[in-house]
Specification:
With about 500 residues, the chain is α/β, with parallel strands linked by helices. The protein has one domain: 3-Layer(aba) Sandwich (Alkaline Phosphatase, subunit A), CATH 3.40.720. About 25% of the residues lie in helices and about 20% in strands. The strands form 5 sheets. Strands 5-4-9-1-11-13-2-14 form an 8-stranded mixed sheet. Strands 16-17-18-19 form a 4-stranded antiparallel sheet, covered by helices on one side. It has a 3-stranded mixed sheet with strand order 12-3-15. Helix 6 packs parallel to helix 8.
Length: about 500
Amino acid sequence: MVVPDFGTAIWVSRKEILMKPHVVIIMADQLRADVLGKGFTPRIDAIAEEGISFENAYTACPLCVPARGAFFTGTYPNHNGSLINPWEPADAIYGDVKKEYETLYELMEEDWDSIHSGKQHLFTEGGKLEDREDSKTTWCCTEKIYKQFLAAEGVKMPGGPRFRMRIPEMVNGKVTRVSSYSNANTGCYEPGEKYYFDRYFAEKAVEGLKNRNKEKPLLLNAMFLAPHPPLQIPEPWYGMVTDDQFELPENVGVFYKRQSPLQMYNLTGIVGARYDKEHWKEAWRVYLGLVSMLDECVGQIIDELKEQGIYDDSLIIFTSDHGEMLGSHGLFQKMCMYEESARVPLYIKLPKKGMSGKMAAGTVVDQVVSHVDVMPTLCDYLGIRPKHQMDGRSLFPLLRGERMEKKAAYIQYDGNGSRSNFQRCVVNGKYKLIVDLFQNEEFYELYDLEKDSQETTNLLFDAAYDSVASDLMGLLAAHMMKNGDMLTLPIYAADRFRSMYGPFEAP
């Protein structure tokens, strides 16, 4: 089969696939990659053990809506149009994926029995996918359906005033508004796990699997909310993890001397600065309990696939839209470029049949990859193609055990709710460059990820790394120009930067 070349994708003939495989995509929300494989997630870890793990995978944006827009279109936010969470009416146009970009749902729901359960947060110009009359997906459960279920039962959602706080934030980089956001307070959700987000999402996913159209291959998108705040979770998960079962990373509760001070204008710093290490210890304990609950919910889906005898014939992808700072660098939530926020778990388990020469189960790939690479990989494997040009590249050669040219990953952040404060980032494997912009201020960070995985030493204050910074600045500038970035990268002057911020001391 001859098909056009989309980027560097290597398209596969359907003859190479014995049958259309079942496809299962499981996405967590705000899951740190570094909490997996620590004894809290045996069911998720099993997917990695039976598949391929990409240990240096990055989100395209550390924010829910644009992260999902990039993942499900294989394009960067500046191309597809989804830049922010569209909560502010004036800037809502920056939340929608443009109509000319087909999502994975739209591409597959004709030939696959498409089922969705859980959080969506994928906005398109035609409206939310679940609200569109032309959608052929079975929407077993969405956040709206979950809220209707709670209302019918007379039960309140998790969270509430104690788990939120009001903070100032910028709108359009011009005016300040006060908004309500989750904090790091913890508590027990007394109504019980029957009424908790993810337990309900998992049960509805299993119900959808039981009622699926067996005349078609399956496409399941199971989108969990966990471990996104609020950190109010039901028993037995609330008290499941004890303090002696984990240790805080060394960078928790520490605002480093030469990390960007502009983060204190952002909710990550405003919220994070409220807490000391003792509170972060409690937040971590509850967060890991929520991660354990997520693991069991994933296990429910895996068990149903096995019960139906289709697990071995399924291509399974497990990931998260982005990570969570949880006190690292003294910050909370996501919306920044540090590893805890920007690096994501990415596991791909291939069907047992249908591809010769594939990588051995349990293989760990250390090459830098991006969420925008997932859709080209699926399209490559499944023999389907979107109408639009994808920015990512197929990882299919890696799955076959072949070598691929190393590429950098690019990450952007344009504000939450409204375009306001901006960050740009490039990661080439060894080094990471971060550009932080707020109004007329700018700050730069460079980290050696091989030697400094917790990003404690900003190398831009050492002139020996000026050439490294210059090379990465060039890569980032070229990427921004290619993808139609509305921002212009400031001209970086190393000496001026060091003289301006050299005396800066962390609070």
